[in-house]
Amino acid sequence: MSQPQTSVLVIDTSPARAAIIEEGLRAEGYERVQLVTDVERLAARIEVIAPDVIVMDLGNPKRDMLESMLQVTRAVKKPVAMFVDRSDRQSMEQAIEAGVSAYVVDGFRQDRIKSIMEMAISRFNAFSRMERELEQAKSALADRVVIDKAKHLLMKSRGLSEDAAYKILRKTAMDQNRRVVEVAESLLMSAALLGGDEP
Amino acid sequence: MSNSVRVAYLPLVDACILIAAKELGSAADQGIDLVLERETSWANVRDRIAIGHVDAAHMLAPMPIAANLRLTPFDTEVIAPMALGLGGNAITISQTLRQEAGFSEAVTAPGEAGATLRRAVANGGERKLRIGVVHRHSAHNLELRYWLAASGVDPDRDCEIVILPPPLMPDALAKDQVDAFCVGEPWNSVAVSTGAGAILTTKNLIWASSPEKVLGVHSEWARKNDGLLKALVRSLYGAAKWCSDPANADALQKMLAQPRYLGIDETVVAQALSGPAGYEPFDRAATFPWQSHAMWFYTQMVRWGMVEHTAPGLDLARRTYRPDLYRDALREFDAVVPSSSMKVEGALTSSVPVGAIGGELVLGPDGFFDGKVFDPDKVEDYLKSQARGA
Fold first, then answer.
1. Which 110-139 residues of chain B touch chain A by CB within 8 A?
2. B346-354, Cβ contacts within 8 angstroms, sequence gap of 24 or more
3. pLDDT tens digits for A114-156?
4. Any chain A CB within 8 A of the CB of B43?
5. What is the CA A119 to chain-centroid distance, rounded?
6. CATH 3.40.190.10 residue ranges in chain B?
7. B89-206: which CATH topology?
8. Contact flag B135-A68 (C-beta cutoff 8 Å)
9. Between the CA of residue A10 and those of A42, A55, A92, A123, B226, what are the distances in Å?
10. A90 pLDDT exceeds 90?
11. Residue A111 above 80 pLDDT?
């Protein structure tokens, strides 16, 4: 479905997320999409873009400024209202939880903004999930490095095989009801305090 | 039932009462688990309280009034059972404007500063002064406009008042993107410390003993959680007293400077707390939500065309501030509380001891710099005297 008339402006501090939103809009047939990650001289740019819909992330510290700009700017000829408005409490909650907000010019069709918002909400959520997974992956990697160090310390100081060293760590963790990485950390810390071999 | 109370705040000096209540354990002593959530914009504060993500928030004093008058996107009723201090903001000008207009580097009385500014505007030709404030519905905007108008400078014809996030103000001033700004501390002190600007005059000098932020509470939450609300007010009252004690100044500035709260240099926080902006967290009934304050903000919102005056509108604005809840919470608590809910703003020209519930309170001075008096019983006359072209 082509939406040739509708101009959408995406204001997002994260270029990666903005690109994901843009892709989603294009997939729904919106061809006039503009991305803005830096809001310098935004008023002038809004004048050129003349958006019908503005999608904005809530993490932007300039949000108060942007809202007031939308209220006073002569560029947007019609009054701008916040979509996540009185009428639809549920989507308003979902949008704020996802961290996104939208503004529409007066008279824009409710059903059309709804589909834009649904797409934005789901993509914002997917983006957060990706970020969390990336965070977890990073922390899992860091855990592995610590466990490897502890294993090598045991192998060296007690002449164990890698497998045997890991079993000791795992058994200690189970006995003490702790995570393997915590046991490994304590071991490395004790070794450092006792002035033993540098792990 | 959960005893947690979630409160949003912006990293500003006058969030100190909330931060101290958490850090000192005053909230825990009152049996509540105070969860503080730092936010990045007032719009986010408004949204998150609307959908019940937070129960209460550090808010610009006119914000709850604007919400109840339906000037904001959500139909959220917000009440203010407590103020979060007096004073604390200032008008800072760029070095360029200071030199052009011939201001001194010292903090100047608003009357004199205004007269100098009027001359500069008259000599400046077509150029409008650009002045930054933090939000449309802020004490900053309304007091700045009051000062400009009383000085013979039209805030709309002679100036362009723009909204900027506080942390960006010093930089905007340094780059001459704005000629001046009106903002809460620490951002005036930051601009002074970087050399970007000089404090011209202060909120305290424009309207003495006036509020800057209030505790905004979602009214539905307040109705359902009367016990928690009272405990919150009591814990904040205790924390405000602690913040006001000079013996705690060191501990307070260390507490605020921490990365998870304000996250700025401790010396700048110290300067902001002791500087000319004169933030007062406790003395002079600094946490009492005077209904006359709410009504004055309302008159200024009418004056600048944000809302049309109606009798129910005025009443709604007045009832946004809830001294009754404040008194209720502090009954049988070691507190001295004003017995009246309104006062004539400008009646006290100096500090005066007045009778109060639980002892004696020193109030005032509470006047406007131009000597005009706001009598909450004569709102119509006040509005007429300020009408455009009057």
1. 134-136
2. B346/B371, B346/B372, B346/B373, B346/B374, B347/B373, B351/B284
3. 888 888 888 889 888 888 888 888 888 889 999 999 999 999 9
4. yes
5. 15
6. 4-86+211-327, 89-206
7. D-Maltodextrin-Binding Protein; domain 2 (3.40.190)
8. yes
9. 12, 5, 18, 13, 42
10. no
11. no
ipTM of the complex: 0.87
The predicted-structure confidence for A17-56, as pLDDT tens digits, reads as follows 999 999 999 998 998 999 988 777 777 777 788 888 889 8
Q: Chain A: residue nearest B165 by CA?
A: A62
- To 5 degrees, how large is the angle CA B167–CA B168–CA B174? 120
Task: Tell me the average pLDDT of chain A.
Answer: 83
**Strand stretches in chain B, DSSP E:** 4-9, 33-38, 56-60, 78-83, 89-94, 129-133, 159-163, 180-184, 197-202, 213-218, 352-356, 359-363
Residues in chain B with pLDDT values less than 70: 1, 389-390
Asked whether this chain's domains A7-132 and A133-193 adopt the same fold, the reply is no
Q: Where are the domains of chain A?
A: 7-132, 133-193
Whether A81 sits inside 8 A of B164 (CB atoms) is no
Closest-CA distance of chain A to residue B178, Å:
14
> Looking at the partner chain, which of B73, B135, B164 has a beta carbon nearest the beta carbon of A85?
B73
CATH of domain A133-193: 1.10.10.10
Chain A residue numbers touching B164 (CB-CB < 8 A): 65
Domain A7-132 coded CATH 3.40.190: yes
Task: Please determine, looking at this structure, whether the domain spanning B4-86+211-327 carries the CATH number 3.40.50.2300.
Answer: no
